[in-house]
Queue: 2 jobs
Job 1
Amino acid sequence: MASSYNAKDEDGHHSGSGGPAGPGVNKSKKPDNTAFKQQRLPAWQPILTAGTVLPAFFVIGLIFIPIGIGLFVTSNNIKELEIDYTGVDPSSPCYDCAQNYSWNSTAPCVCSVEFTLDQPFEGNVFMYYGLSNFYQNHRRYVKSRDDSQLNGDKVSLTNPSKECEPYRTNDKKPIAPCGAIANSLFNDTLELSHVNPNKTRTPITLVKKGIAWWTDKHVKFRNPSGNSNLTIVFQNTTKPVNWRKPVYELDPSDPENNGFINEDFIVWMRTAALPTFRKLYRIIQKSKDNLTPTLPRGTYVLDITYNYPVLSFDGRKRMILSTISWMGGKNPFLGIAYITVGSICFVLGVVLLFIHHKYGSRSTSADIPN
Amino acid sequence: MLRRRLNRLLGGDENRVDSRTIYVGHQPCSATEGFTPPKFCDNRIVSSKYTLWNFLPKNLFEQFRRIANFYFLIIFLVQVIVDTPTSPVTSGLPLFFVITVTAIKQGYEDWLRHKADNEVNKYPVRVLEDGRQTSKESEKIKVGDIVEVIEDETFPCDLILLQSSREDDTCFVTTASLDGESNHKTHYTVPDTEKDLESLSATIECEQPQPDLYKFVGRMHIYKPDQDPLVRSLGPENLLLKGATLKNTKKIYGVAVYTGMETKMALNYQGKSQKRSAVEKSINAFLLVYLCILVSKALVCTSLKYWWQSRDGQDEPWYNQKTQKEKDTNMYLKMFTDFLSFMVLFNFIIPVSMYVTVEMQKFLGSFFISWDKDFFDPEIREGALVNTSDLNEELGQVEYVFTDKTGTLTQNNMEFIECCIDGFQYKYRDSRTELDGFCVTDGPVSKLQQKAGREKEELFLRALCLCHTVQVKEAGSQVDGDQVDGLDHLNPHPEEEERGFIASSPDEVALVKGAMKYGFTFLGLESKNMKIRNRQNDVEEYELLHVLNFDPVRRRMSVIVKSKAGETLLFCKGADSSIFPRVRQEEVERIRMHVERNATEGYRTLCVAFKQLSAEEFALADAELREARLALQDREEKLMAVYNQVETGMSLIGATAVEDRLQEEAAETMEALQGAGMKVWVLTGDKMETAKSTCYACRLFQRGTELLELTVRTLEEGGRKREERLHDLLLEYHRRAVQDAPPVKGGVTRSWSTANQDYGFIIDGATLSLIMNPSLDASSSRHKNLFLQICQNCTAVLCCRMAPLQKAQIVKMVKNSKGSPITLSIGDGANDVSMILEAHVGIGIKGKEGRQAVRNSDYAIPKLKHLKKLLLAHGHLYYVRIAHLVQYFFYKNLCFILPQFLYQFFCGYSQQPLYDAAYLTMYNICFTSMPILAYSLLEQHITIEVLLDNATLYREVAKNAMLRWGPFLYWTVLGVFQGLLFFFGAWFLFSNPALQDNGQVFGNWSYGTIVFTVLVFTVTLKLALDTRHWTWINHFVIWGSLAFYVFFSFFWGGIIWPFLKQQRLYFVFANMLSSVSAWLVIILLILLSLMPDILLAVLRRPKSPRARQKIPGQSSAGGTQSSRSSARPLLMRTFSDESNTVI
């Protein structure tokens, strides 16, 4: 095709270049013969036909169903125990604490919930607290924080962001950490002890390290630098309104776990996605010898220092004990979803095979003629 | 418009009147009149829109006048003013980007315009001032200045030619840069002006500036010291237009009449067609739907929010107190700002980027048309021209094609075939010797083989030689090849240099050449004397007294000449219908037979008549003509009246037949268009018989086609009143074509080639005007309706004897008929401009009748055959591309925003965004924009070759098939399905947020990131599934976008960004990827989202391949048939039978 054009081209040139009469007008505008400009770029033209999709469906089915079964089994093997200790029901041990709650009571209200484990919990056991109907994802709430203050910025420490309003200052002093999230830090204390057959109690060690994201603990959250004594660092600030103690005294047992880098605080600061959520509270490490389960079968007592009011907004508080697998906590959804999707694929594969078989002889040969 | 009005106001009283008076050389003309120099605008051309100072405000104002930009500006302002969930940056940044890019582009274009303006305005010109030549900058020329222009210079303003260096007081001009016509045009000096311009004292009265390049009316008063003032008429032949170039003339002097922005060139500057495509209408409809969705979403959320807040303890729990300001705000004001906040939160559903992408697609996509080398025509050395990129997709939607005949279906390359003198047929045969190249052939006529009398022969040939406006191209002058005619190689006088003719119409050249074959050669026009060489090789001279120009209404032209012998003769040539009534009736019959036979053979026929004018007759005619020419107002009408008066009582001497060959592949192209479901209407000014035979030759009418005729002839058959007959005929045809036809199911998409009867409809101009503007008001709309219905049921319609305006009328009628079908007009001449402008898509052919059609068209192609690829391949692909682009954009933003909407139900209707601001901003700009742009530029769901081979594929996209509510619903449902899937998939996963194997939990930003990741991958892979044509560019942008998303997410979450208030995404993405569950859920959701599409693609499959496979067989059969036919001459067996019935 190109050659024929060239041949004609010569003629055209001969007559076209007759004179300088219209140099601008008569200029040749022959388009370039490149693959791109002629829309002839080499191209792969895949066509989805029953023939190509069929095996894919079978393969997906064959892969998804085992994965789903694996996930389902894994999820089922995860042991989980939930205890609601809000104290709505008068029979509940925490009923009194819940009913008599007042913000300015100095004496902490303590209640104990007894529960039984029918099955031993093996491996590391994770202790969560769960809240319901608590809108940590409310916009006013989510934005009510100052990340540069939490990152140790000294200017923000004494002059927190406007976003923290109305938890920005108290008595003309800047609040550290400021904002609604920090102010509402979950402050119930949960303690767990095993009730021995002889009714004596063995307290269970609850580890508070490793409950927050590593990057949060080490990079995102930082105490203001300058002095190792946090009291001095935070001296020009005041504690959040609802807190009982200042931020540098959050963990009396471990000085490295105070200030903004307190792990309970960091966990709380990661706002939950949905109004019903759980947050990691403590870890019960598996026993060293691996012979005895971490939490053997038996009766346990959960001692709660009831500080956190939820009834005012119709909330619930739970304590959750859970083992963990490679896929995280117990969640049958993934397993079921995978099995379902896998089965659907498989069924579709069969249907398609039927269609393919019926129309197959024609549709395979009927590719677009190029 | 505004500027003109302003000019008028500023110009004072002088400019308000209908004419302006110009003092040539600024010389006061009479002592009695006080000389007040009238004010006109200066000669500065300002094509630029902006100056350095007003660029920013003016450009911003222009941009925000667009409704979309304004909407986004409002959203942005709401974000700035009201406390909204997303920062103003999320919508401000894209808007800023769009505005900046547009501003830069417009600024650059304006800078170029400034540069071009300066070049023109600062160009040095020579002006005669007080008898001296002074050099000036072009912009300083004033009206009335006498300007000197030398060869090859362009005229700096509109000038009246006063003096030329050529002896015959003419000059040659090309208007290539004005209208693209590169032939030389002759302009004349005003007669009787003095050679000494210094002492010339004259005024010019002329009309106010108007944009028509070919019209000018004026009058010049020349004052001489001791005589009465002379008055000379001025016409377009005296006016040299700014922008035209002087050729073949050493220098000229002219007086400036229009300057600067009042020149005809400047007045023609604006006037780009403002056509909007059907796709754009669909987009607007969809936008409205989405706007409704947006508003209802916001309303639902606002009302739910207040319902939710009214419950105990939810509005303001202890952990989440309101600020003092919030508490103080009025409840209703708060409701309103909440509503606005929701609007802002969901506004991404109507993205800025869609406008940008659509614009970009159209702009870049149109290059493929001008780049296409298949459109390159080696003869004129030009390819296709795209005048607007707004209508690319419209090319894929055409339902009605209106085509001109001459120059479009036919080549407009005329060849003299035969003539008939006094009833005897003469046919020129090349085989004979040239000296005796004049022989008589035996026609079907029962006449004996004999010649007409020698006298008549010679009279006829002289008439051919004299009655025209052809110029002889000077041998010395350098002219380029692509003129109206080629060089004439048939040279009976070898001693002479090659002779070329220049004429406005190729018919005339053909006739002059025809006469040459018979021994009469036109030698040229020298100072009003026409010279011809007769058969005896003697030179005869005739003084040209008047030319009664051709016009399409009169359909004839005449010359009045005076022979050496002193006889005054009028020669007239024109269409038979316009000549026959003006000649003696007894002469008509003998010639009519020939004319009709020639016409059925597809030749263009002209009749030649003459009349000898007595001295008194001439004196009268001369006076009337001069008077009419001098008229300032209604000159056209007056001239016409005089012409009609003069051209009466002539005697018919003969007729000519000129062949206009069919364009290359005209038949195949028409067949392909019909195969593609388009209805082809031929609108021509030509005779019915000629046009009909062309239609047969183009296979528009076929052997089996039943012709329904509605012409003056059929109307007169019954002998009753025309109106009654028209009514009866319309009813009868309606019954035949509409009522008896099987009910049409699929509209245009129905197959034509089925067994049912094909109808062809023929109507002529007179009948059409009877239908369009009948005297009886009541039946008018009914007639029109019947006519339209009949036409719509015919495969082809032929409208002959059409005036240009009637062509537009027909296009308009069809355009506004039920279902508002998309129309396309194609033509090459000035008479097609009106229909080109009227139709949805106007195509100009770069033909021989000048460039007016091309200038006014939306697309211009060199040949008719290119129309096939333009529509079937380019149009189809552009339509599919843009339709997919639009649907995809709405879809991807629906499933982008739906999860955010659903999230409101779980965050207390607090307008908490689900995605981080960076994701909200970048989604449409970076993550998902490039793949769809690449798709919309490169996709060929069916390759070009297949599209060209199977015209029927065009029907698959007919009637806006991909942008109707059905497909829109499909995409919307898909978007909703996927949005639901994304959100609830993640929701179920987050029923236990402990997703990491170390027991740590994920927060709301992880939730959003998971949904967003699924979203980006799904919409990109969905596009990948739809892509049928994977070039390396597609691979690059699709996989590149996904890689970029991953890379960006790592990068964005990897650093504590000092300028961010909140480090929301810090390591969120990395942590997400460390969770196996997140991986699993992402894979699952992507797969599940794509499942419906895969299934549909597979289930749709078994049908179409078979359908497509069948087509090649059909069309290849048709192809061989048509290729055979195209090689044949115009005359075809199929209608030779037909033609017998006519005679």
Job 2
Amino acid sequence: MMRKQQTFSRGLSDKVRKSKAAPEIQKNPFEVKINRKKFDVLGRKSKHDVGLPGVSRSRAIQKRKDTLLKEFRLKDKNNTFIDRRFGEYDSKLTPEEKILQRFTLERQRTQDRKDMYNLNEEEELTHYGQSLAEMEKMTDVIDSDSDSEEKGLLSAELTATHFGGGGGLLRKKSAGDEEEEHKPRSRQELIEELIFKSKQEKRERQTQKEEAQELTEKLDQEWKSIQNLLAHKTPKAERTDETDKPKLDQYDMMVRELGFEMKAQPSEKLKSAEELAREERQRLQTLEADRLKRMMGDAEEDAVQTNTHVSADDMNDGFILDGDDRKTLAYKDGKWNIEGEEEEKEDEDGDEEGGEEEDEDDEDDAEGEDDEEEEGEDDEEDDADEDHCDLQSDEGSEDEDGQGAEEEQLCAEEPPAVSEEQKKAAQEAARAELPYTFPAPESYSDLKQLLQGHGSEQQRLILDRTLKCNHPSLSAGNKAKLQKLFGFLLEYVGDLATQNPPDLRTVSALIPQICGLCQMFPEAACKAVQTLLSDSGHSMEETLEVKGRAPMPDLDMLVLLKITALLFPSSDFRHPVTTPAFLFLSQALTRCAVVSLEDVCKGLVLCCLALEYVSLSQRIFPELLNFLLGLLHLTVSDKHNMGTAVCVCVCDLHREILDAIPEKPSQHAPLVFKKKKPIPLKLFTPKIVLDYGKKRGNTKEEKERERLKHKYKREFKGALREIRKDTRFLAREKLSDVMSRDAERKRKVKELYGSLATQEGEWKALKRKNRK
Amino acid sequence: MAPSTDSNVKDENSQVSYKKDINTKTGRILQNKKHSNDIFDVIEYLQSEKDKEIIFATNACKRVFCQLFYRGDLYVGDLPQEEELMSGDRSAEEKYRIFMRHRYNNCVELLLENMGHEAFQVKEASLCALMKFVEAEGKHPLQNLDLIEHYIFPRELLRTLVEHLLSTEEDMSLLISRFQEFLEMDDVRYYVMSSVRDNIYRVMGRNKKAVIPVYQNNVYTLLSNINVPSQGSKMKHFLVKQAYRPEEWKAGKLKEHKRAFEQMWLLFLKFKLPSSMYKKILVILHESIMPQMSDPTLLIDFLSAAYDIGGAISLLALNGLFILIHKHNLDYPDFYKKLYSLLDPSIFHVKYRARFFHLVNIFLSSTHLPAYLVAAFVKRFARLSLTAPPTALLILLPFICNLIRRHPSCRVLIHRPSAAEEPCDDPYVIEEEDPAQCHALESSLWEIKTLQKHYHPDVAKAAMKINEPLTEQEEEISEVLELSTFELMERDLKAERKTIPLEFDTATELLKSPREVLGVHFSLE
């Protein structure tokens, strides 16, 4: 209301200003107010340079008197709306009852209104306020057009007969008139004719369509024959276009066929071996860089900043009691590795060995020794006693023992190389025997059936073929199947490892397939490994809680941990699989009881795994040290039991460790906080901004926004002003009301006093008269 | 087939028959005094081979003697010998009573024996029956006492019962937990406490103060089941109601209860205990023993002895000591020195790690501790952290940071800008027992710097904090105190990750990867 008023009043004042009706007012200098301009802008017309405040005020007051005052006078004198609907405010009635009652009332009313005895009159039934009778008529028309193929396209005749409108139809009708003149036909005949015509039309359309179909089929066949020649698929739209066209000339088809014929396309140049190698290298480089980035994790910036020799120091300070220079070298090695292109493999090998030495140098060496020794034991694990006898027999021949171990190792590594040809032959044989396609196993038992009874190479082949047959690109369901297959495979591997004797060769043979699957479905693989880890972690936790100690994890778990290291990067700062795996390792190394030689062996395998996990990232693994120390303590306590033989071994070991430990303890620089960027002093020179004034929005929307904002602000202010004026006006009116009422009262009182005075006067006069 | 069913039938028959037999006999005993000799048969069943028969007979005895108690058919006063029964000139009624009293004594003896039976049901039934007798004797005392002088309670019966309950050969913990129900009653509790005290004194004295694990375990189970109510006004739940001046009865007074409780425990703790028992007691000491004692400072001998034992027991004794120091104004010399020497790598692996760190956090929360002491603790913790598992590290690192926050003078440990950047030997002496002599303040926390390369990301991040000036706000460590490795594992397992990075160079064999370590030392087969 206010706004309207305001605009209205402004319009009024404008009118007043512009109208020539009151020139004497406009000329009167007391009435005119000139709005002073701050800047004179050339070419701008201003509407409001001259105002007539008196006029506009009187107008506004008049306006208020007409509207606001009237409303005020009528305030609290309004009519009220009474809801007389039946039972509207009756809470006792349920809605259904209410509706029923109302309905009956309504019926009664309509009944009453009409003539009671008029039986013919039926009331009109409605649905959604529309007459049902009407609707029935409408649907009739629509129903007649039941042919779905026509998709609502009505033939001209049909529309003409049904609706009888349109210019052309009129003409036709007139033609019909002419015919009618020839031989008058009954309506029946007309309808029959109509039906016949429409049927004929339909038939024609059908045949046409069939023809088109045939043609498209033919085209399809031809297309298929040339399809494999084509380098790329034609866009789908084109093809559909073709089929849609009803008439196809032989010529057209020829032209199209020619058009589809494969053009010689520029193929990519065959890459030379060097180029391929370079690309591969590049790829590996980026991947390696990526890995390093992940390894740094959140500490990335720190690493970048403290890449000086201090940080490198620190890295190895943690444990290693010497070898600052060596460490930094190794670190450089890591970097070098990425840039060094040719000898990546060799380098990595070197790195690995270097890392092994540096990472936990002395301890690790000890561990290495220990390992070898233990492995010697491990090989004859079954008869531990005999083993000890062995040890006793070759007193002090520690070197020999080591050699023996190495030899065994060599033996272990050799067989695959030797049997390369055999393997080939076996593969051939297997290829001949095995079928070429395999269904993807739906359950674990399926997989077991599939693989059991075959040699490891054959199993690998079977898996390979299964993977190929069920490649996700071949069918939609394959993806899920293969994802499940990964879980089954892991289970199978676990089974193989828990068998007695464990079939680790097969496990090893299956590794490429597992890796392949993992590369295909990282999420599923991650989930599968995670569940296995979490299950065994949980069971270990439970046994720990119940018994206070837990057995060492079984071989299947060790194999799983190893496979985890093969599949996922253990060097990441945080990784959904390897971080839990780390924790599992830590838990196993700290909480599991070592009660037998087998446990010792398992523990050492775990140590190797732990070392492998951290070998690239060069992290520290305190549990590893703890465990090895514990083992050393065990051997020392053994010394008393076993006699001199072990004692000598231990002494040897001890000497070696002592050799490895440097004389001087490691040194540490005192810690200092990282240098912060100095906070600049507050300056007093003025801040200079090159862009002048307020920045206007550049885009159209921004400008529009600004404009609207501005407008809104002005309107808001105007509305406020108006409201204030309204209230002031009302107050004034109220005051004047009160004043007038008071004046009236005073007047009346005066009158009364006057009349009383005169009465009194008269009475006194009368009295005086009487006395006299 | 046939014989087995036969035997089954027989079994059933015998079952039915013994039930019938006992029922008819008890009925007859109660009906007529003529049939009182049948009681022998019923009592005989108490020595039966079959558990069910014993239980049934026990219940029957319970019924019979309770009834007799009620009727007053048991002889009251000093009981004459059975042989003298005939000689004296007594009325038939009196003879009957004496006879029944003797049977009652027999029955009680057998029931006490049955408390050492193999089957738990038998033990339980015997215990219940005996407690019923205790109640009945309380109501109808068998001693001819001057009622005005004494409060009536069958102390003797309860004493023998407790004696059997605290067996030196058998673990009675199940039965004792059943007995707990009766300990709810204030008078039973009071008299049990005093009987236990006598019992301990006697048994331990007999054994020349050597360790008797089974007995001590039983005693511990019983003692730990005793709970003195916190308010004296609640002492209204009695097995035996006293007619005469109940408000002056000792068993109804909280003070007396507390005293009895205290004396019982102190006596128990006075003797040498197995180390597992030490742990058990210390675990519950601060919660369920100390608040119920009238003067907890009396425990100081026990606590300081436990504190001197070392290892986990010392850790646990800390809690009790803390309460004594904190609430009872105990002055423990060299407390911090002792605490300092307690810190060794085992603290990360014991079960009570959370409790220990909670307490140490409290001990070191004072800002009035000297800087050298706090620095020594910090340095010690830092050194130990090099061997700690990740869960402990997640407690330890924020804890160390908090300590440095509280004591700004220890900031030199992580920030010593004045010193030259040359590496030098760590002046800290880990072997030194005295925190004042270990030169911790001159050292630096290079251990934490090392842990920045820890394999676990959370630990590494926590260690990263010392690179920059610490924030004012202390970190809350109470949430991580109970963290287990598996929970830590689950954090990563449950976390949603968009991409899962994979190892890019795929392996061809199990023991062939670019960074093979396992394959170097182990082979397949």
